[in-house]
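Interim report to the steering committee. The following record documents the input for Heme-degrading monooxygenase HmoA (102 residues).
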Amino acid sequence: MYVVHSTFRAPDEKANEVIEIYKNRSRKVDQAKGFRSFRLLQHHKKQGELTVEIEWDSKVDYLNWVRSQQFKDIHDLEKKYPDQDLAAIVPSVKQFEVIIDE
């Protein structure tokens, strides 16, 4: 299994707005080959610090998603978001190979 974390910091006062965006996400990634699960995590003390966690069957499946036209289309829409504070957010991406899953 392969897990990807995209962590970003939104202004605290806009955290709920970002959460609503993710509640209404397109779900295109859910249809990608190898997709397992999607989670949005919120830091327990820093309201605006959010992490998107996506689980994949393999690194190859993740890379195929990142190279897909659907991935590009979704991320192009983010750049056009009317709130420029949110449109300018650049996440920190970390990738993990699951070693033990009990």
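DSSP finds four helices and four strands in the chain. The committee is asked to note this result when reviewing the revised timeline.
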